[in-house]
Specification:
Number of domains: 1
Number of helices: 5
CATH architecture: Roll
Helix content: 40-55%
Shape: elongated
Distance between the termini: 28 Å
Radius of gyration: 18 Å
CATH class: Alpha Beta
Strand order of the largest sheet: 1-2-3
Order of helices and strands: HEHEEHHEEH
CATH superfamily: CBS-domain
Length: 142
Amino acid sequence: MLIAEILKDKGPNVFTAGPADSLESTIQALESKRVGALVVCDGEQVVGIVSERDLVRAVARHGGGALSRPVQEFMTQDVVFAEPTETVATLMERMTDRRIRHLPVLQEGQLVGVVSIGDLVKSQIAEATFEAESMKAYIGAG
């Protein structure tokens, strides 16, 4: 299955933060949107990604004072991207190797979505279920 198919089902919503946004507002956005990461954009340019893991590390290292500091101090700047034409298997391998759970998806340099490890696992389960049901139907029609 291609990532484009997952994005088609998920829809085009990408939740973002600005580099100057406070960690506190970022945490509130994660909570209200019920997501585990936000893409950090400066205008149309992706400059980072901030995940729950980044936030925990910020507070662990700097205490509660980190909450008033800008997200750009704590975001992951070396962003790993995906493309809509890549397969679920390819991205699962990339995410596992790099120990990341969210990938922004770029198409022709434009941010078109985000996929999580949960999206990929859900896709694989749906595909396996479909294949099993198809096999049962084929055997039953015998």
